Amino acid sequence: MARGGDIQEHPEYPHVIWDLEPDQKGKLPVAKGRGGPFNIAYEVHGHGPIKIVWVMGLGSLKANWQRQTKDFGHTQADKYSCLIFDNRGMGDSDKPRIRYSTSEMARDAIELLDHVGWTESRSVHVVGISMGGMIGQELGLLIPDRIASLNLISTAPYIFNTVGYVENLRHRINLIIPKSIDQQLSNVKKNCYTLKWLAEPDECEYVKEPFPTNGDRFAAMEVMKRNHPEWFTRVGFLLQLIAAGWHHKTPEQLKELGDKIGRERILVVHGTIDGMISFPHGEKLLEYLGGEESGITKRFIEGQSHVMPIERRKEFNSWIEAMVEKTEKLNKA
C-alpha cells in the first residue's frame, strides 16, 4: 500500500470525494436556546418517497456516506431521498466550543428533519453508525412516532470497556497531531477494517484510475480530510469524543426504545472483530433492546470489523433495503 505522503500524488486523489450533485443543500442554524445558534451543513440526494437519514460517526464527514448516497440517492433517486449532514464539530458544520452530547446532537438532527419537512408519522428510516448509532438511539426516544426503521450499526448502549475504548481512540486523536501519518493511518486501519479487505485491489468507482488497494483509498480520504483543517479540527474531534464517551442508555431506557419504536422496526449490526467498539457492546445493545426473539433483526458478522457500509457495501445496502421494504409494508398494514 502507498504511504500517506505519496497517496496525494496518485491521479485519483483529487477525486476521492465523489462529485455527487445534491437535490438540496444548505446550512441550517440550530440549537437556539441550547448553546446556539450554530450551523449544521446538510445535503439531500434523491427525490423519492422513501426517506433515509444517514447519521455519521465520530470524526467523520457526511461524504463518508458517499457510497450509500450514490447507491440510494442517485442510482435509485426516484425511489429514495437521502439526508446526510455533518454533525456539530465536523466538516462544513460549525464547531462551537460547548459541551456536546449525543442527545443534543440528536436534537440538532430533529431540527434538520423539521427543516426539510420530514415530519410525518413513520416516515423516516434512520441509519446510524458508531457515534451515529448512539445519536440514533436518542432520536428513537425523542421522536419514536416519526421513525419507520431504526438501523444501529457498530454501536453501543454505552462504552463499558473504557480503557480499550480510549486506547483505540488515541489513534484517532493522533490523526490531528503532527506525528508520522503512516503510523497513524496504520493504527486506524487496524481498528476499523479487516486486513484482508485493506490489501485487496480498490473496488470502488474511479475517475482517472483505481488506487492500488482498498487501504489506499481509505488513506486518501483520511489525508484529504487532514489537508482541510476547516473540516477536521482537534477541538471539534475532542468534543465529539466526549459526546460518544459519555453516551449512556440503561436497560430500562432501551426497553422503552424498543417498546416505542417497535422491535420489528429495529436492526442491530456488529462485527465480531470490531476494533473500535468491541463486539460485546453490540451483544449488550441487542439484549437490552429485547433480544432477537423479540423481533429485532440481528446481523452479527463473523470476522468483520467496524466500518461495514464501506467494506461490505452491497451486502450492507441489501440489509438496509430489506428493513425499508419490511417496515414500509408495516406502515400499510
Give a description of the structure:
Helix content is 42%, strand content 15%. It is an alpha/beta fold. An 8-stranded mixed beta sheet has the order 1-2-4-3-5-6-7-8, with helices on both faces. A hairpin with a 7-residue loop joins strand 1 and strand 2. Helix 3 packs across helix 4, helix 5 packs antiparallel against helix 6 and helix 10 packs across helix 11. The longest helix has 20 residues. The chain is globular. It starts with a helix and ends with a helix. The mean pLDDT is 93. InterPro entries: AB_hydrolase, AB_hydrolase_1, AB_hydrolase_fold. Pfam families: Abhydrolase_1. It comes from Rhizodiscina lignyota. This is Alpha/beta-hydrolase.
What descriptive keywords fit this protein?
alpha/beta, eight-stranded mixed β-sheet, AB_hydrolase_fold, Alpha/beta-hydrolase, AB_hydrolase
Query: In angstroms, what is the radius of gyration?
Result: 19 Å
Residue windows where pLDDT falls under 50 for at least 5 positions: none
Helix content: 40-55%
Q: Count all strands and give the number.
A: 8
How are the secondary structure elements laid out?
Elements: H1 4-7, E1 24-30, E2 38-45, E3 50-55, H2 66-73, E4 80-85, H3 102-116, E5 124-129, H4 131-142, E6 147-153, H5 162-174, H6 181-192, H7 195-199, H8 214-226, H9 234-246, H10 251-261, E7 266-271, H11 279-289, E8 297-301, H12 308-311, H13 313-332
Parallel strand pairs: 3-4, 3-5, 5-6, 6-7, 7-8
Antiparallel strand pairs: 1-2, 2-4
Helix pairs in contact: 3-4, 5-6, 5-9, 10-11
